[in-house]
Each structure stands twice: as structure tokens, then as C-alpha cells.
TrEMBL record:
Record keywords: Hydrolase, Signal
Protein name (database record): Esterase, PHB depolymerase family
Example GO molecular function: hydrolase activity
InterPro entries: AB_hydrolase_fold, Esterase_phb, Plant_Biomass_Hydrol_Est
Gene3D superfamilies per UniProt: alpha/beta hydrolase
Taxonomic path: Bacteria, Pseudomonadati, Pseudomonadota, Alphaproteobacteria, Rhodobacterales
Length: 306
């Protein structure tokens, strides 16, 4: 069943479709989808993970993903946390049963993806994932535990894979304390699956003034993946995009495999640009209108808007 057109972005009524019966759901998650009218066979899928205190609908309206899906012909899947699993609606990226392959929340999300891919004839080579905060940290989990599923991932105000394995560790890592070394973080990704193929590309976004998840976590994510992609320690090049610094790492063939945006004066949240002809989303708590649309730039990075 396809969704109707996205309502006005100021309208927060439910515009997503509930996905039921997608599997055993060991993580006890909910799931919703947005499939634009006329979605083509072998079209791409983006998995979007909300942050703490958010819902699938509120994150979608704030980020503008459904509006972009209508523009570009992209299917969307929104895994959603239940308050019975986490009081503030966070994905449980720091719990051992929820940050390993084959169980918990990661397996639930994998089952959702499989169902949506089957229902809508998704191109298996064009499946991507993004998320904010706890959703960003769970994006790190999914990219590490199921790398064969994703062509790329975008981590916004998130943390590296398995930088924490308990709630207390999570609080310390969020504040920038005690993170494992890049070498250890790399080994954790390597050990998360038996994958030997082409690794997903990585896009990292973080506020330079983030007081909830320290900006050092962005560099630790980049450090975790630099060894995976076998790129140099220093960026291939640095450029300015919509006033923000973008650092880029290319593989030996010149393909951009890692990018990092640090929005210097931004706090904790998803950077959006709601104004102008190409504006997307709506400003609200943790959806920060700072003049650059992470949604649009991430979609461009993945080749979804060409």
C-alpha cells in the first residue's frame, strides 16, 4: 500500500504507514514506511532512525525526508522505539543484546528492511541508513553488524560502534571521556560480522557546540572507519559547503568513502535548512535550522538526487 502525499510540514498528523508482520522482532520495535506515489521498481530505500524523545513522524517532518522522497523517488523506512523498551524513546545502542548481529534491535531493523525490500522491489545495492543521536549510534551499530545490507550510512550527532557496552559507559562516551582507541574501534567493526565485500560509505555530521554528545565522537567515528576503508589519516581535501567545513577521504581509486561535517556553532541536533526553494524540514527541538540541509546533502552524497 502506498502512502498519500506528504501533508504540509507544519502538520504533525500521522502521514506514515504502519509496517506489521515483518518478522520475529526480537527488539520489540515498531516500524513505519513512506512510499511516494509512482515509486519505481528497483528504486532505493533509506532507513531513518529518530533520536531520543522523538517519534518517526516528528523526525520525518523535522528533517524533510518525505518531501525529498517525493522529489527523488525514494522509499523510506522508519524503525521506531517503544517507551516500554526505553523511557525516553532511545534506541538501546549501548546494551550488549542490542549492538550485536543476529539479535535484539539490530535484527528487528534487518527484518524490517527485508520486508520492505520484498514488498516494494527495492534495489538491494541502494539501501542506506541514517539517524540522529541514539538513532545515529544505532546507525553505527547497523553499519557494523550488517555491512552487506548498506551502500552507505549517515551518522548525525552519534557515537562509534560499541564505544559503550553499558549505560554508565554511554554517559561517559557521550561527554567525550574514555573512548576506545581508533585501532580498538576498528577491530570492533571487523569483529562484528564476517563481511569481506565493499564497505558502506560513511557520512558524519556533528555540532561543534554539542553539549549532549561531545564533538570528539565525530572524529572517533571517522577514525573507526578510516582503517576499514584503508584511507590516509589526513583528509584528501577540505572544502566549505553552505558555510560548513566538509572533510573528505577518498579511496585509492578516488571515490569519496568518508565525509565529515562539523557545524561549528550548532548544538545537539540535525542540521536543516527549511527556507528557500530547496528548503526541507521544519525547525523544532533537535531539528536545527542552521542554513545547511543534512538531508539534502546526504541524499546527494548517496547519488539519490541525480
Amino acid at each position: 500500500m502506498q502512502n498519500q502525499s506528504l501533508p504540509q510540514q507544519s502538520d504533525l498528523r500521522d502521514h506514515l504507514t504502519v509496517l506489521d508482520g515483518f518478522g520475529t522482532d526480537p527488539g520489540s520495535l515498531a516500524a513505519k514506511t513512506y512510499i511516494p506515489k509512482g515509486f519505481p521498481k528497483n528504486g532505493p530505500l533509506v532507513v531513518v532512525l529518530h533520536g531520543s524523545t522523538q517519534t518517526a513522524e516528528s523526525y520525518d517532518v523535522g528533517s524533510g525526508w518525505s518531501a525529498l522522497a517525493d522529489e527523488a523517488g525514494v522509499a523510506l523506512l522508519f524503525p521506531e522505539q517503544r517507551k516500554t523498551n526505553n523511557a525516553i524513546g532511545s534506541f538501546n545502542w549501548f546494551k550488549s543484546r542490542h549492538n550485536r548481529r543476529g539479535g535484539g534491535e539490530p535484527l528487528s531493523i534487518r527484518q524490517m528492511i527485508r520486508q520492505v525490500a520484498k514488498d516494494h522491489a527495492i534495489d538491494p545495492a541502494r539501501i542506506f541508513i541514517t539517524g540522529l543521536s541514539s538513532g545515529g549510534a544505532m546507525t553505527s551499530v547497523m553499519l557494523a553488524t550488517y555491512p552487506e545490507v548498506f551502500a552507505g550510512g549517515a551518522i548525525i550527532a552519534g557515537l562509534p560502534y560499541r564505544s559503550a557496552d553499558s549505560l554508565m559507559q554511554a554517559f561517559f562516551r557521550m561527554k567525550g571521556f574514555g573512548s576506545p582507541s581508533d585501532r580498538k574501534l576498528h577491530a570492533l567493526v571487523r569483529g562484528a560480522s564476517r563481511f569481506t565485500g565493499r564497505w558502506p560509505t560513511i557520512s558524519v555530521w556533528h555540532g561543534g557546540s554539542d553539549e549532549t554528545v561531545d564533538r570528539s565522537n565525530a572524529d572517533r567515528i571517522v577514525g573507526q572507519w578510516k582503517r576499514i576503508h584503508k584511507v590516509a589519516e589526513t583528509p584528501t581535501r577540505i572544502e566549505t559547503v553552505d558555510g560548513a567545513a566538509r572533510r573528505i577521504w577518498c579511496d585509492p581509486r578516488g571515490r569519496v568513502v568518508i565525509e565529515e561535517y562539523i557545524i561549528e556553532d550548532m548544538g545537539h541536533g540535525t542540521p536543516i535548512c527549511a527556507k528557500g526553494d530547496e528548503g526541507l524540514g521544519q525547525e523544532s527541538k533537535y531539528m536545527l535550522d542552521v542554513g545547511i540541509s543534512s538531508t539534502r546533502h546526504i541524499a546527494n552524497f548517496w547519488g539519490l538526487t541525480r
